[in-house]
Every structure is written in structure tokens, then in C-alpha cells.
Amino acid sequence: MAETLLFELATEEIPAAYQKNALADWQKRLPALIKATGLAHGTIHVFATARRIAFTVSAIADKGEDTTETLQGPAKSAALDAAGKPTPALVGFAKKAGIAPEAVSFIESPKGSYATATVTRPGKALRSALPGIIQELAGGVKFARSMRWSDLANIYARPIAGYFALYGQNEWKFEPAELQNTLLADIPFRPVRGHFILDPKPVGVPSAEAYAAALASHQIIADAAERKAQIGKLLRAAAAGEKLELIENEALLDEVNFIVERPGVVVGTFAPDFLRLPDGVILSEMNQHQRYFGMRDASGRLSNRFLIVANAMTADAAAVKNIREGNERVLRARLADGAFFYDEDLKRPLGERVDDLKQIVFHEGLGTYREKVDRMAEFASLIAGDKVPRDLLQQASRLAKADLTTALVYEFDHLQGEIGSVYAAHAGVAPQIVTAIHEHYLPRFQGDSLPQSELGALISLADKWDNALAAFVLGKEPTASQDPFAVRRQTLYIIQILVAQKIRLSLVAFIAAALKKYPAGAGDAGASLADKVLQFFKGRLATIFESEGFDKKLTRAAVFSGGDDAYDLFARASALKVIAEKDRTSFDALLAAFKRMANISKEADAKAKVEPAKFATEQEKQLYAFAEGLHKRSAVAADDLLRHYKEIFAEFAAGKPTVDDFFTHVMVNHEDAAIRTNRLALVTHTIAAVRNLLDLEQLA
């Protein structure tokens, strides 16, 4: 018989992030657990709300097929003694087969007579397997914090209120013995229920496949994806009803999806006077503290109306009024606090706060933030060269961190930069500096926007370089298991900005100059530290390119080729990837030939020069022309580096016939010493052109 199986685990309200992870974990592991039973089954569906997590398995057999197996035991000579009685070997075999020794039969085979037994094993019963599945499933979920309750041994994110199991139309109430050593031990069977306050009575579930429909008849949306879509639809409809546009917030939508199970949307308002606060402050109060959604008008201005996703009966006018007024009261108090901090902060222009940074320690041994912003100005100048006025870089750097001294940033630390840009604009600071203050924290996380303005990119790079170099100066550079200063992440962002802005920067020169800006005695600022930073940066560069799908060996050959300009190395690796993928087999063969040249060149006289007049074959002339072409192209200062390297590597790849002809028709170790010396010099000259582009050692 095959029916649909339903299992529901009812709990106290579980934090949204916990339940979202639990749902993902069940969806991932349940199919394998069901498959392991060997029972034929149909589709699997997992449901989750804040107070329940459940699954259904359609058309699953209640019992597996019986299996018949023929076991082979010891040879007859070892199974029976001289008197024909069973030996211990035969007794052990019979016990394993579950039969009496006398029931064992013997069959003849080419190797002699052996004991055999035919065993029929009953199929696994679904009911007996289910408690173990639940133990693996629910007991295996990892929560940031779990808890015990009452005097029970059970451990879960929140107390478990009960379980409900239904097979077809039959309820399965397990006996205590069936639940021993599982998460369900001492947990009662409990019928499915509706909303825990508004509709706590049992919900009739006529059959397992009707679970979602039965809850839907009580306004509960059990399916998380369906509920999320419905919440989004309600939010957009409510915003349209107010002639406003919803501020989409995927993370917040995910969170409220696991807070409510019978969603409704209520519109609230706050006093228009609070709109003088920075948008970030208002949205932070609404999104992070109260889980409200904001709206904007057609011109993009933030509205004083907001949307509440309620786990309530929004068809009841009295309930809606109560929800709206309660939430408005809470938000009003929070915005009043924010307004107080904002007004107090504005009493002092941002520029006057720069020296207050002397009171904030950057890192022990590296001084204060006041010293940090001066280093940032120096670093930005090193990166920009003469392209951006030094006084502009200095002003932007000093103001970039000034908002750390404000009350509003102390209260909303995640708004660093955004608050500073608002205060700078209020003080009449130049727009490009205002933008740079906001952008210099970008990107804040992987996938975030990068700085768009040149000044913003420069200040962001300076800030991140200082954060990364500080770790090396203090001896806190990343290890295999630790990265306390998040240097890997900082380096990733540096590379992304350099590439996006196409900023040319000599890493060797910059790192050496930058390390001199740190206090005397703050770590080893010598050449060894500079080389350590450089090698780490190049290693990260290669790792990042590899994560983007670049070939590992080719990427490292490009990155460690001797260049030290991050954007140049990116363009080189990108062009190499494009050219190599056109005909990888031929390209690898060409690289092998160049590695052969590299080995031959070890025998060459380092002082010997190529003398074209001594070429004895056409192949020598062609190889020389090929090498000269690579040398000349490599020496060109190109504006479009990506195009430049694509052209170089296209010429590089096109040289395969020339290289092949040379090795086919030319004997390098010629018996004539003068010819041999010239040919070795030619090989060395050619391989030098290749080494300008690639580190052949990385291709080993």
C-alpha cells in the first residue's frame, strides 16, 4: 500500500534565521534519508513557519518488498565432524542465517560441497523507520544557540510542543518504546493547530496530502516560498494603494516570512518632521529594529508612511487600528531619539570633529584614527600620483572618518560614511568630497557596489590598504586558520576597485613607500616585510582570478611573471584565458616547447648576443622575427591593456608553427661553436620575450 506521509514538528516560536536554515537543511537532507529506507516513494515537500516545520512524502509504501537471499557457508568438510554432526562453524553460520543447523542444505560446486541457506528478509516498515528519520533530520540541524526545557533531555532551538504524523488518513501515535533515544522521546502527539492566539483549536486534516489546504482554510500559509510571494504581493499592493513605491528589501522579506504564518499588511505613519533625518537613520529604525518596510514617492523621496507585516487578522478594523497605533508609538519613540542625536551632532561642523579622532585608538601600536586619516591621505596621494590635487585628497581623507565621533554613528554604527556624507553636505563641503566620504566604505560586503567616483575609489583604496598593511606591521597577517584583521577580504576589495577603475599601481613601489608611513618601531618595516606583503597580495590575486573560473596554472604564470601592477596582471590573465581557450591543446603544446627552450637556454653564455648575420637557416630568421615582435609589443605603453594583451597573446599563439619549425629543422647544439653560441643566444632571446609575459615555472 502506498499513501502520502505527513509529519509536523510543532514548536514555540523559533527565530527567523534559525527556521530558515532548518528549512534549507531539511530540504537538503530529507530526500537522502527517505531514499535510505529503500521504500518506493513520490515527491517530497517541506513546509515551515515560525512555529512549525513539516514534510509530506507522496505515494510512499508502508512496507518495503521482502527480499530473498542465498547465503553460502563453510565447506561440508568443515561444517560436519567425522560423526556427521554440526561443527561450531556450521552452528555459527546457521545462527547468522536465522535457522536451525539441521535446516542447512549442502550444494555441490566445482570447488566442492558447501553449506547454503535461503533467507527471506522482511521489507522495512515505514512506521518503524520514521522516528529514526526524524532524529537524523531534526536532531542534526545546527543552531547558533539551542536549549533544554523542563526536566527533559531534549535539545532544540526552542521547546518542542508536539508532533503530528499521518499516513494517508491514519494518525500514527507512537508508543514510548518506539521513540526511545530520539528527539521525540517524551514529546506528546498533538493535532495540527492554527494561529497560536487567534485560532489555537485543532485543525482537521482529512488526509496527509490535504495538509497545506487544511491550514490554508485557517489562513495559515505553510509553504515558505508561497508565503514569501504572498507577502511581497501584499506589500506592493499596499504601497500602490498609497500611490507610493515599495523599497524592496530581500533580506527583510526573508526575515518577516519566518515571523508570520498568516500574513497581513498594515499601513502606518510617522510625523513628517522626522523626514529631516537622513534616510539611512529612518530606514535603519524601521528595517532593523522594527521590521517595517519603507516607501518612496514618485520623485524618490522617502515617505512618512511605512508598512507593517502583521501575523494577525487584518480584516478586523479594530485589530488593524490596534496594530497600527502600537507600532506607530514604538517607531515615534525611536525616531525621536534619532532626531535628538542628529540635532546635537549638527551643532558642530564635521570639520571641527577631525581632531576628536585623537580620542579613538585605531590599533594598539599604530596610534589613533587621527593618525590613520593622515596615512590615508598619504596612501591616496601615492596611488593617484599627480592626477588628483593633494589638498583634495587630504581633505577627503580627514573628513572620511570624522563621523566616528558623532552621536548618531555611535548609535547606528553601520551608517558610518553615510552619516558623514550627510553632515559634510550640511556643512557645505564640496560635492565630490561628500560623495567620497560615503563611497570610501564601499564595498562593505562581497557583492556590494564599488565606489563609482575617482575620489571615492582613491579614499576607499587608501583606507583598505591601511587596514591590510596594519595587520602585517603588527605581525597579525593571515594564517591558514586565522585572519583577525580580515586582510583577505580587504585585499579582495582592493583588487576589485583597482580593476574596476583601471588604476595602474606599482605594488612594489607603493608597498615600500606605504610601510614607511607607519610609526618607527611598529613592526619590521624593512624589505622582508614589503616582500611578504607583495607575495601575499599576488597570491590573493591568483586565488581571486581562479575563483572567477581562470585556469590555475595559466593564472599563476601571468600573475607571477614579474609584473607588479594589479590591473596589468588582471588584463594579462584575462587575455591569456581568452586566447588559450580557443585551442587549448595547441596552446599547451606551445607552452611545452617554450619550457624546452627555457631548459636549453640554461646552457647559453649570458653575455652572448644574437647576431642575425650568422643565421644559417630560414627557421632561425623566423624565430628571431617572432621574438623581436614580442619584445616590441611588450614594451609598448598601451591605454587599453586588455586589448593590448589580447593582441600580444594572439601573436604569441600564432607563433606555434614558427617554434615547431625551429625545433624540427634546426640543431641548436651545432658542432660549430660559433653557430651553437648564436643559436643558444637566439633561444635565450626568445625565452626572455616569453618571460616578459609568463612565469614558465608556474606551468610545471
From TrEMBL:
Q: What is this protein called?
A: Glycine--tRNA ligase beta subunit
Localization annotation: Cytoplasm
Please name the GO terms of the biological process aspect recorded for this protein, alphabetically.
arginyl-tRNA aminoacylation; glycyl-tRNA aminoacylation
- List keywords of the entry alphabetically: Aminoacyl-tRNA synthetase, ATP-binding, Cytoplasm, Ligase, Nucleotide-binding, Protein biosynthesis
* InterPro entries reported in the protein's UniProt record: DALR_anticod-bd (IPR008909), Gly-tRNA-synth_bsu (IPR015944), Gly-tRNA-synth_heterodimer (IPR006194)
User: For this protein, what reaction is catalysed?
Assistant: tRNA(Gly) + glycine + ATP = glycyl-tRNA(Gly) + AMP + diphosphate
The entry describes its oligomerization and partners as: Tetramer of two alpha and two beta subunits.
Xref: PANTHER family: GLYCINE--TRNA LIGASE, CHLOROPLASTIC_MITOCHONDRIAL 2, GLYCYL-TRNA SYNTHETASE
What is the E.C. number?
Answer: 6.1.1.14
Q: What class of enzyme is it?
A: ligase
Q: Which GO terms describe its cellular component?
A: cytosol
Q: Which GO terms describe its molecular function?
A: arginine-tRNA ligase activity; ATP binding; glycine-tRNA ligase activity
Supply the source organism for this entry. Turneriella parva (strain ATCC BAA-1111 / DSM 21527 / NCTC 11395 / H)
Show where the DALR anticodon binding domain sits: 591-696
Could you tell me which Pfam families the record lists for this protein?
DALR_1, tRNA_synt_2f
Q: Which family does it belong to?
A: Belongs to the class-II aminoacyl-tRNA synthetase family.
First-listed, main subcellular location of the protein, grouped into a coarse class: cytoplasm
